[in-house]
Design brief:
Elements (H helix, E strand, L loop, with lengths): L14 H6 L14 E2 L4 H17 L7 H17 L7 E2 L7
Antiparallel strand pairs: 1-2
Bound molecules: zinc ion (ZN).
């Protein structure tokens, strides 16, 4: 697994630093702002599988609402904890199209 590297100073971010910087992506070394690349395959696959489970599998199963909520929360936590893995940083914000 590869962790993010600052686009400005090329320093590798540690896992803890990456999680701490999830929102602003400010480099802990040079304090420059980085941008995450959009349309990462992982994000697409993740949201796709969660949506399929939530929309098409859960409604046909007799699962307590509580379990669905717990599943949603666990999925969110897993998503956030694995966010820095293979995250690519850029100097400029990439245009959407
Ligand atoms: Zn940096």
């Amino acid at each position: 697994m590869s962790l993010p590297k600052c686009a400005h100073c090329q320093m590798d971010w540690h896992y803890g630093e990456s999680v701490k910087n999830l929102l602003f992506l400010t480099c802990p070394y040079c304090k420059e702002k980085n941008y995450a690349r959009k349309f990462r395959l992982r994000d697409i696959l993740f949201s796709l599988s969660i949506s399929i489970i939530m929309l098409f599998i859960f409604p046909f199963m007799d699962i307590l609402f509580l379990w669905r909520t717990i599943f949603g929360m666990v999925a969110l936590i897993v998503y956030l904890l694995t966010y820095p893995v293979n995250l690519r940083l850029t100097k400029e914000e990439e245009p959407l199209f």
